[in-house]
Amino acid sequence: MAEPQQPTAVRGSGEGGGGQFRNAVGGVLCAFALLLIGVLAFSIRLFSVIKYESVIHEFDPYFNYRVTQVSLISAERSSAASIFCQRMESFSQKKRKKNGVYEFWNWFDDRTWYPLGRAIGGTVYPGLTLTAGTLWWLLNSLNIPLSVETVCVFTAPIFSANASWATYLLTKEAKGPGAGLMAATILAMVPSYISRSVAGSYDNEAVAIFALIFTFYLYVKTLNTGSLFYATLNALSYFYMVCSWGGYTFIINLIPMHVLLCIVTGRYSSRLYIAYAPLVVLGTLLAALVPVVGFNSVLTSEHFASFLVFIILHVVALVYYIKGLLTPRLFKVAMTFVIKVGLAFCYAVAVILVSLVASSPTKGWSGRSLSLLDPTYASKYIPLIASVSEHQPPTWPSYFMGINVLAFLVPSGIIACFFPLSDASSFLVLYLVTSVYFSGVMVRLMLVLAPAACILSGIALSEAFKVLIRSMKFQRPSSDDDSSTEGDEVSSVPANSMKNQSKTSVKSETVTKEKPSKKNRKMDQDPEGSSPVGPTREQKLLVLPCGPSFVGIMSLIVLCGFYVVHCVWAAAEVYSEPQIVHTYRSPYGLHVFDDFREAYAWLRHNTEVDDKVASWWDYGYQTTAMANRTVIVDNNTWNDTHIATVGTAMSSPEKEAWEIYNSLDVKYVLVVFGGLVGHRSDDINKFLSMVRIGGGVFPNIKEEDYLRDGIYRVDAHGTPKMLNCLIFVETDGTGFDRARGYEIGKKHFKLTHFEEVFTTHNWMVRIYKLKPQKNRVRGKLKLKSRSKTSSTLKSGGKTNPWQ
Amino acid sequence: MAPAPARHLLLLLPLLLAAAPAGADDLVAELQSLRARSPSGVIHLTDTSVTRFLSAPASRRPYSVLLFFDAAALHSKPDLHLPQLRTEFALLAASFHDRNPGSGDLFFADIEFAESQHSFHQFGVNSLPHVRLIRPEHSTLAGSEQMDQSHFGRLADSMAEFVESRTGLEVGPIVRPPLLSRNQIILLGILFLISIPFAIKRVIEGETLLHDRRVWMAGALFVYFFSVSGGMYGIIRHTPMFLTDRSDPDKLVFFYQGSGMQLGAEGFAVGFLYTLVGLMIAGVTHLLVKVESLQTQRFAMMAVIAIGWWAVRKVIFLDNWKTGYSIHTFWPSSWRIWNHPH
């Protein structure tokens, strides 16, 4: 933070018009490279579109897609049924947008969780849908008529390009444009980010990662410049992040941690204050505006750290201010006095706070946050969270899959960040360390690690290339007393190293001063290790021998080449499956199974608008979005009992299942069976979890009844209960189950309470209709049974209406 | 021996237990006093006491007993977790006792294999860990109910569920003893509060360990190393460092094939390789450039490149071996090369 005038002086003397020209060329090249990086980030995510088609993937994206449609289609909808049928062009665009947003806030979805429904407006993060909606609106007002679905499909790739540009900016703030470009290139194709952002993967993370990196960039930028303008932008960017993803708590804990770190290591400055204080105040106010967060932004423990650091920052700022006012001796006296009084006060406040927090059972932390702090928490206390596959702790191959060779480069990047240590580079290290720890606890947080790993690998590679190429370019003269043979190059080195030495001090200056000196640094080579050497002393050229340097460069290029191959492979083969269309290879060639959409289309065109469809919860989002029919349960698993009811029905014999479904007004039952085509994740495979969840609420369902010797099977050795339950009866029919590789245990039976109405081409989805109740004609029983039936139906169908 | 008054019996229990047909109330009282004498509330049974308390006809046995089968010889086997389960069992007993003080409905007991082999035979127990619930309606010992393996899964909590579902008695929340006692916590708290001013003073003066960037660097590298080697996986899943080969007990298995699981040693080995390459690159870019001697530089760089190659190749090979993924260049027509894992 000292001698801030040096770099400008060096620039003035060291470089003239030629330097400016070089800067201009460098700027153009850099912009061109960034453009290409954007194209790369976008296009590497298009494999799914090319290999399959432009379609939204998986389960949750369908829900987001539906929400987007609703937020776009507006207030004047006449009935819920017409939402998806009406052409959007029929509305005035402006009105739609405005009304759409407010309508969306209050949207109560009656197409799901029948008969409960779900209030959507206040329970989802609106960032993604509003982003896609705005994109769509923008394109349409430019007379580019794209469908909402197309916009949704391509939102993720577009934001990946944005994310790599944001990475460039962030890395540039810490280590210059060279490292920035390298990091942006690496991020454009890092597999663990691709896994969440291929075209069609329309999920919160798609935009959230961009928001995360951009918020970090603005924070670091504010920290470097001390500009209130960037501080305000930072708060807005944070707001966007809060809108987009629950992961915003990572930001609001990481930044305070960094501020605290700076204070503790004696790096407090007014820039730090400007970077942090507005973010907390504005950011918290803005966060409270998002319905799903609301007062949580001041009430939950996830946010307390930011307030605590806010207070500490003010105390420290006050101390520094007083220190400036008083003489050192007076200051010492004042300090001892203030510390004594202040500490007494602080203790009192701390005790109150601790007792308040400790009085709540979870100490004010949500289960998910606790499981990050205490890794064994989830497995002990919240088995439901622990059982989700993306909440498992990753093994080492997961890292190799997710960030590949970056795993080798990151340690070098960490070390590079310490030479020299600036506010920005310390932030990057902190970001990496926290995210790598969190990713170790939960595999899905690998996504948060990916940008950090890319940035640090970019720095590492850029530093390594810098040194190696410098060694190729300049050679140390054979004797150490040089300066005559290679005067030009060598004399330029001390000047550079001087710039480099005051790199941190550059940051304290204003933007205008900083820009040119940065460009200098980009164009020149930067000997890093020379920092402690004074400018007056003769500078040694820091190079390595030429031959090994060449081999080193080649090996690094091969390493990067391997990374590219891996990323393209991962993008093309591993992460591009839409999960709605399945492909299988047989000896006769490739087969594409499009059964899901076939079934949903059938439902949409052949059933009444208000019919209720029951399926296992995995298919809920898709059914509402694609078939536009009301479902009983969906992927937002907020009501265990409801899911357990469906699970119980699926695992009960036909008659009882009919009663349960009838009590829920269900007209159609959709089951998925992969036995004919060998699709593994079908309802038979999910059946045990249906039994478990059902048994968790209704004790008459027992897991043991469905297992033979502890083994789950549906062949001839299956238990009678298993072979009679609804799910089995409905999925059966082929004889040989190719998904599990044995013959089905029970064939040729007649359904009494259900009738098959539709089976898709490859038998993957089968839809059954509940048969209407039969008329009873036998004189005496008729009256009895009728009265009985009506009473049982009212009471929820506990007993059999057939008797 | 003739039926003696309960009082006397209690004093001489270990000797006299053998064949004293006592009334139901006597048996309950005996068990209660035995329980009172055991620190955790778990009664230690032997062959004789099993006969006395558990083989008695149901009419004189109005209580249930949850019996833990222990074997001191097997405590050293890490995959059985016997000592851990035994402490959890004691916790369960203590929690139940806290909830139902003086209850005569359910007793917790343990039995040791070396001293009570006969009882093990009677119960038909031939593998551990084994926990049995003997309820009044069980007429024979072997007919009593065995606790399923799944109920060991979440230790005392899941055992409590088992007990609650089978006996209808309430165990209540499992009371785990805190790591530090209350007084210790208060003491530590006071020490911490006192140390704050000194810490602040040191921090202001800028001469703590915190100001040494090497400490931060080492810390960051360690966290990185620990995380990428899947150390968290080991902590959460309690995976061992290595396994012994089933077919050949002398052979140790360090690497587990299959991507869903990893062993501790395997993770740390690969994590070391990850970190090693990075450290070597950093060493070349930041340290080696400062070295004067060209010869040293040349030699060190060659070594770094060679080791780096080896490490990267090793990781790629291990990853291939473990997950079965074969990474290849992507050509649009190459559908045939790679199949979806079936």
Q: Could you list some keywords that capture this structure?
A:
heterodimer; A: 803 residues; mainly alpha; Rossmann fold; five-stranded mixed beta sheet; two-stranded antiparallel ribbon; 34 helices; 11 strands; 5% strand; disordered N terminus; disordered C terminus; B: 342 residues; alpha/beta; Glutaredoxin; two-stranded antiparallel sheet; 12 helices; 8% strand; elongated; metal-binding (chain A); glycosyltransferase (chain A); dolichyl-diphosphooligosaccharide-protein glycotransferase activity (chain A); dolichyl-diphosphooligosaccharide--protein glycotransferase (chain A)
Shape of chain B: elongated
Average pLDDT figure of chain A: 78
Low-pLDDT runs of chain A: 1-15, 74-97, 479-538, 782-803
Please summarize the sheet with the most strands of chain B: 5 strands, mixed
Brief summary of the model shown:
The complex is a heterodimer of chains A (803) and B (342). Chain A is mainly alpha-helical. In chain A, 61% of the residues lie in helices and 5% in strands.
Write the layout of secondary structure elements.
The complex is a heterodimer of chains A (803) and B (342).
Chain A: H1 6-14, H2 17-43, H3 47-51, H4 60-72, H5 93-105, E1 108-109, E2 118-119, H6 127-141, H7 148-188, H8 191-197, H9 204-225, H10 228-244, H11 248-264, H12 270-287, H13 296-299, H14 304-325, H15 328-359, H16 367-373, H17 377-381, H18 383-387, H19 396-402, H20 406-417, H21 423-441, H22 446-473, H23 487-501, H24 503-507, H25 511-523, H26 546-574, E3 582-586, E4 589-593, H27 595-606, E5 612-614, H28 620-627, E6 630-631, H29 640-650, H30 654-663, E7 666-672, H31 683-697, H32 720-724, H33 726-731, E8 736-737, E9 742-743, E10 754-759, E11 765-770, H34 779-794
Parallel strand pairs in A: 5-6, 5-7
Antiparallel strand pairs in A: 1-2, 3-4, 7-11, 8-9, 10-11
Helix pairs in contact in A: 1-23, 2-7, 2-25, 4-5, 4-6, 4-28, 6-7, 7-8, 7-9, 7-22, 8-22, 9-10, 9-12, 10-12, 11-14, 11-21, 12-14, 20-22, 21-22, 22-26, 27-28, 29-30, 29-31
Chain B: H1 6-11, H2 13-16, H3 24-37, E1 42-45, H4 47-53, E2 64-70, H5 82-99, E3 106-112, H6 117-123, E4 130-134, E5 145-146, H7 156-167, H8 182-205, H9 213-228, H10 231-237, E6 243-244, E7 252-253, H11 264-287, H12 294-323
Parallel strand pairs in B: 1-3, 2-3
Antiparallel strand pairs in B: 2-4, 4-5, 6-7
Helix pairs in contact in B: 5-7, 9-11, 11-12
